[in-house]
Predict the structure.
Amino acid sequence: MIRPVANEAQRSVGLDLRSITKRFGSFVANDAVDLTVRPGEIHCLLGENGAGKSTLMNVLYGLYQPDGGEILIDGVPRRFADPKAAMAAGIGMVHQHFMLVEVFSVAENMILGREPGLVVDMKAAKATVRQLSQRYNLPVDPDALIEDLPVGVQQRVEILKALANDAQYLIFDEPTAVLTPQEIDELMVVMQKLRDEGKGIVFITHKLREVRAIADRITVLRRGKIVGQAEPGTSETELAQLMVGRAVDLSVAKQPAEPGAVRLAVDGLTVTNSAGAVVVDDISFDVAGGEILCIAGVQGNGQSELADALIGNIPVLSGRIRLDDRDLADASPRQSIAAGMGFVPEDRQHDGFIGTFTIAENLVLNRFDTAPFAGGGSLNLKAINDNAVTLRDEFDIRTPDVQNLGSSLSGGNAQKVVLARELSRELALLVASQPTRGVDVGAIEFLHKRIVDERDKGTAVLLVSTELEEVEALADRVLVMYRGKIVGIVGPDTPRDVMGMMMAGVGYDEAVQVAAGDAADAGKDA
Amino acid sequence: MSESTTWGDRVRGEVRMRWRDWAITLAAFVLALLVGAILMIVADPQVAGNFNYLLTAPGLALGSAWTKVSTAYSALLMGAVGSPQALAATSAAAAPLICAGLAVGLAFRAGLFNIGAQGQAILGSMAAAWVGFSLPLPPVIHLIVAVLAGLVAGAIWGGIVGWLKATTGAHEVIVTIMMNYIASGLLAWVLTTAAFQRPGRDDPISPEVPSSAAFPQLYEQLHLGFFVALLAAVVVWWVLDRSVIGFSIRAVGANPHAAGTAGMNVGRTTIITMAMAGALAGLAGVQAALGPSVNGVPVPLTEGLVGTVGFDAITVALLGRSKPVGIVLAGLLFGGLSAGGLAMQSVAQTPLTLTLVLQALVVLFVAAPQLVATLVPFLSARKARASLTGADA
């Protein structure tokens, strides 16, 4: 692709953030941050959770007012009182959590918030959807209801909304966090297309592979400051070092498992969802103490329901769950917890964390009613506070005060709170679903290490993950699920292409044969 | 050492958080008084008429308006806090409001909208009054049994709602509204039965509650029930902030999914909360049934005995931000408005309904902090900052 040579006249074209500073109380979220985006480039903003990426973008989008610095568009200083002003200036945002009305159609969502006058012109709205989706190759049915669309298509609608506002600069806030690998590939193509059309794109992420695949320029943010610019060719290891400020080993150092006796025995487990459909279909497996069994699979193949059934959040239709000597098939979460089950829920904000509670309270959420945190019906605030201070230091939870609200924490730190809570008591079994989703590299390494440490203490670990890197790094055995059934239980060294086919429902033996055939074909082509 | 720093931090945090609430409440009150003043001027034909000569004789128009408003508001103030008698009257009016306000506020902290304080208060007043006029018990014991009966009756009435919600998922708003109708119907019916109706009377009125079961009068209208209400506020504060069950109540209110996943029994917490709220609202009914009136004896049970305390309680809880201290202050404020409203009526010939309008305006302005913040630019800047730091969340 040919990009214009920047000369003096053109230098001011584009979006300039100059020396942006944003403070929250005594905490400096952005410290004199400079960032430029030119039309026709993808600028990656890379950083750990809590590094200040989202704050910076919220300043740009008019959600926050900066305490210092200025925003220039084509050399003209601008001030955005609210997102509407930012949108009017040509800045569009594709949010991590979509801002769509689920029961509205695509076209209805497009005109939401900018209904012109009294009469809603649905015809024009639909025409806009069709025209934009054709131009940018983002196929969407304008009449489809949002709730019926897959997540990847919903994201397309978000992008179209920004484009319909005539956005020249698009901010993608962690757009790949909710997507399947395939959808990620599609998004990459869309972003490249938008760039080639002359849009300036800010791509916020902490996934190094994506950065390397697509970025024209890379800026790394750490603890509110810019710590470096990197070229697209920079290796993942170097980028990771810039992000966390030290060398990071992406693989996990762990000794071979020394499995002991079976602790968790699941036999013929069947679970239905609220609509009555069988989502976990007659599953049987064991997990021994001192081993990590990974449940791998594409999201939505029954893993979430399996985890929920184990803790007791949803009822079991039939089958048995035994943990050590206790039968937990009909147990409530309380009984499961009492039996020594630790649980890291897949959706931490929804099931694992209370934003309006203090960090200290969140750290005792499942033990607040037992000694030493309670006695005689009364809470022991000092014990709760001391516990929080200890865990904050042990788990490197970054907060100035454990009495701050949970909602003040970044995603990675909130996840550390959840894991710290679960690991701070004696466990027989740890069930962790997507423990590192939305978590930065530095925290991932830390969380992985703690999970392995827990295994080495003799705890049985059941890890549900849709990320193959995580599965490969942690698993001692891998159970692949597809449509509620077990496709096979394999070793962690199983080749990725075989694992990928198993996730699509192909049995192990057949997958190995096909993979071998492909390899042979590839050899011929070369 | 660490204990004291923790305490200091907590208190400082509370003060920081509350400051804005206080400012907005105060501003809302001032705005309500201003709007009330305008209403007074418009509603008085003579004063309003003087405004026809505003340009020719501004002194006359403004002077008469000032006289009208200042007379009314000074009467309101004097009637509420101007004398020991006024303060006593305020305390008597505030006591049931505080109890019922706690009933709504406590439930609200568990994520439950308790519209049923009215019905729970009716049941509480029925049980307390019945024990009062039917059981020949010795003093002190008589009062204690009557109060407990009211608490239990309210707790059952509220607990039924919690139980229905926990077991069937029935929405508490619908159920409490229905339970209110049932409660008033039940009261109307029992007042026609031999157990409740005063012998020799055809109208629905009960026998008088003897002084052995009444709250002892301490000074003028101030009676022991007021201190029982304050004690109830302390208990609710302890339950919410210091007790194990309070932790569950707050957790279920903030995020029932996370509470359930952490092993808390959401249904059981709902039932306990509604029963406790019912007991508090029942206590409001007890205040009405056992609190001595101006003539020194409790008013006998009739259909209108508790008035609209259960609905006023919603505004009290809203104004008090569902926190015990706030509810006590809001209850005192509304108690003062209602005591002072009587004085305002007799001194300034202002209709009593104006005090109701003032109460409604205060709540309106408090419920719409955005509105107040817009009207008061100074607050606006603070609010913007507070919402950014997340203090507003």
In short: Confidence is low (pLDDT under 50) at residues 1-6, 380-393 of chain B. The first helix of chain B runs from residue 2 to 43. Chain B has 16 helices and two strands. Residues 20-81+356-393 of chain B form one domain.
